[in-house]
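User: Predict 2-isopropylmalate synthase's structure from this.
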Amino acid sequence: MSGDNKIWIFDTTLRDGEQALRASLSQKQKIQLAHAIARLKVDVMEVGFPVSSPGDFDSVQRIAREVKGPVICGLARAVAADIEACGEALKDAERRRIHTFIATSPLHLQYKLRKTLAQASEQAVAAIKLASRYTDDIEFSCEDAGRTPIDDLCWIIERAINAGATTINIPDTVGYTIPNEFAAIISTLRNKVPNIDKARLSVHCHNDLGLAVANSISAIQAGARQIECTVNGIGERAGNCSLEEVAMIINTRKDIFAPLYTDIKTTEIYRSSHLVSQICNMPIQPNKAIVGENAFAHSSGIHQDGVLKAQNTYEIMAPEQVGIRQNELNLTSRSGRHVIQHRLAELGYTKDDYDLEAVYKSFVALADQKGRVFDYDLEALVFFENMQEQNDYYALEFLSSSTHTGHIASATVGLRCGDQLFTEAATGNGPVEAAFSAIARISKLQIKMVDFNLQAKGSGEDALGQVDIIAEHEGRRFHGAGLATDIVRSSVLAYVHVLNMIQRAQTIDAHKHAQKHTREHAREKNTLKIAAGDQQ
Ligand code: KIV
Ligand code: ZN
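Assistant:
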């Protein structure tokens, strides 16, 4: 199977990527990202670890029901409860895959699992057989394969394939290997595992030494046919292999890689990258390959001159190939709905991605404030419009703040909580602190600020200010974001967003608790009935 020319792209942004975030995503955010990743035309999407929490189970289930196109995959340790939860969560997917794993390196076997390789293999075989009751698409990973002796790897993989694994994944879990070493692992597996042709060989590289992309590329040259990666390379520690980089390497260097190809729709790269960055609160470094702000910017005079004469003097790919489009439209408050819709379509947004009325209303308000509205403003409006959930419990009604050099600042906040309006005033060292104190008095929730980050969206003094907050409440972390021309307002909107995230989490918990109670009650009634039957 490793002989064909298509390189399968297995996206794990919503699993390996999500597990590394400082605040977990809401279900709505995960669905939004899942749709964006599906539009990239990835082959497989790993969207969660269903047994890890009821929230993860629910979002995997919803994505499995809703997102069409790629194979939807869930992660499971090689234990029955994990496989069962995964199989159950994925059951409504058009196409589903269970990805099960166990560690195989001496270090992990001895200290983490306290098992022998033979015991791990037995456990893996049992898990694969159980998974085959739910699907015939089963992936098996040897965790820490990069540090597993090659003969051990060959031995366990042969058994996993015999048990029914259809994809064999080789993770460099700690990002330790270097390209020729990793390629040699793949070549040896292909030469030494007798049944290797019955499975697709996959690689999953971490970036601890900055080699995740290089290792993945070397692996496909050695015969691997699936690359596991994430948008912007987000993931545990230094992250995973970056999807956009491998896709563009294979696409740009056809002279080397053809006939190998991926099905990635490269024009979706820029948009999905920015969405992941926004939603996951993971800024993109400006010099990041493919999607960084400077990736296509030419600063030196010599380079600018060269590009004007012939684009390929200093550009090996065109920005349009990754979905960056130049804007010739001047968007002002006089621009109509159809112009906004047209520009958003050029930026890659379909009508289903946003509510035109809502975005247009915010656009006009912003254009009145700023004069000209740029693409990044428009994209930010769509992003923030989508962030609003229906029936938000908390809403900012009004805000006034004042600050004078050398004096304490003060703020008055009007906050709608359900159908009631509360007003509070407070003082602080600055207007943001004062406004936060006023909100805290109204909500009465114990919230600890873990991180506060302010960034300008756009350039010049009329740039929008985006505030991202990470806040802790009862041991859980929540991410809130706010956008406005006035940074005190952005901060307050981010705080209100956090309050809504907490409120939603509490509602879900209460619902889960009630369901559990009903199930227990039903079980109890059933037991009583059976006991009564026994006595008759
Ligand atoms: O890095 C790793 O080993 C993993 C496995 C679960 C595939 O993420
Ligand atoms: Zn990983």
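The mean pLDDT is 92.
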